[in-house]
Design goal:
Strand content: 15-25%
Oligomer: single chain
Helix content: 25-40%
Number of domains: 2
Strand order of the largest sheet: 1-2-3-4-7-9-8
Number of strands: 9
Distance between the termini: 37 Å
Shape: globular
């Protein structure tokens, strides 16, 4: 079971409230097993999820340990020493040396959206002492938790990109010219110019007819289509062409890269486990010609002049 804030909690898998009694929890578990057992024609995957959920909260000790668990870095703000603030003068980065030049606030918009929705869900006048308290996060609706998971995903990607080296430049939370649309990361290096979407839906995904689908995604969700629209608007705004669009997901969300080949003016879309992202940004796509230093430098100046941030 994924530890992502966006993933279904053991309580949600068992269909009970986090405040359910031990007896209610036990009855829900037994009922789930009866409905999903493969021997009676049930769903083997749902049966397995129920067993894993019970392992997490089925005993008082296990339940107490799970309820105390804090999501990794869920309350941490991005390192201000790594990223230039969106309010900083254009062309000024806060850390150079061997690290990539970094601009913007990765995860900033997603975190703000999480906090806004959490306060709205809690109710007007309700005081929230710690918006990252584990019990509070788990009790929030999954669509709210998704924004926290997305913020953490963007911050994780930014940390990886920052280590690429001084030959790379990255901009985060980039406004895409559409109403409320943004591109999570724009990364420029010798291998090309990449638009990157960082996501975490709390479960595995697969590619179907050029779109990502999965149990954690709604039937009307179109992440690749939305990403292509935002990247297309940004490309037109900046007068640049992206080498590829990259969707970075947690490693447990997919085993191997998923590729939607480019057609006409549409760039290739590559969905990769986050552990493979750096190799793709550094080496580019197979058979792709690498840009010269002069072209990269010229393109970086154009991007630096034209990019605006979604939190400006």
């Amino acid at each position: 079971m994924s530890e992502s804030p966006a993933a279904a909690s053991p309580y949600e898998v068992l269909g009970v409230s986090p405040t359910a009694s031990d007896d209610e929890l036990r009855r829900a578990y037994r009922g789930l097993l009866r409905r999903t057992h493969p021997d009676v024609g049930g769903d083997a995957a749902a049966f397995h999820r129920g067993q894993v959920a019970w392992e997490r909260v089925g005993t008082p000790d296990a339940r107490a340990a799970y309820d105390r668990m804090r999501y990794p870095d869920s309350g941490a703000e991005p390192e201000s020493t790594v990223y230039a603030s969106s309010a900083a003068p254009r062309g000024q980065a806060t850390r150079t040396g061997l690290r990539a030049r970094m601009y913007g606030h990765p995860g900033g918009l997603a975190r703000q959206r999480y906090l806004d929705l959490l306060r709205e869900w809690a109710g007007r006048g309700t005081s929230i002492d710690d918006p990252y308290a584990p019990a509070l996060i788990r009790s929030a609706p999954r669509e709210i938790r998704h924004f926290l998971a997305k913020a953490l995903a963007e911050e994780s990607t930014a940390q990886l990109v920052s280590a690429l080296g001084i030959g790379f430049t990255a901009w985060h939370d980039v406004a895409a010219g559409l109403s409320g649309a943004k591109v999570d990361h724009v990364v420029l290096g010798p291998a090309g110019l990449f638009a990157v979407l960082s996501e975490d839906w709390g479960g595995p995904v697969q590619l179907r007819r050029g779109e990502l689908v999965g149990d954690a995604l709604g039937p009307g969700d179109t992440p690749i289509q939305d990403f292509e629209a935002a990247a297309r608007a940004l490309s037109k705004q900046l007068r640049v062409k992206f080498t590829a669009l990259v969707v970075a997901l947690p490693d447990d969300a997919l085993a191997d890269p998923l590729i939607v080949p480019g057609r006409g003016r549409r760039p290739t879309v590559v969905t990769v486990p986050r552990s493979r992202l750096i190799g793709l940004l550094r080496e580019g796509l197979p058979g792709m010609e690498r840009g010269s230093f002069e072209k990269v430098f010229e393109l970086r100046s154009r991007l630096q002049d034209g990019i605006r941030f979604s939190v400006d």
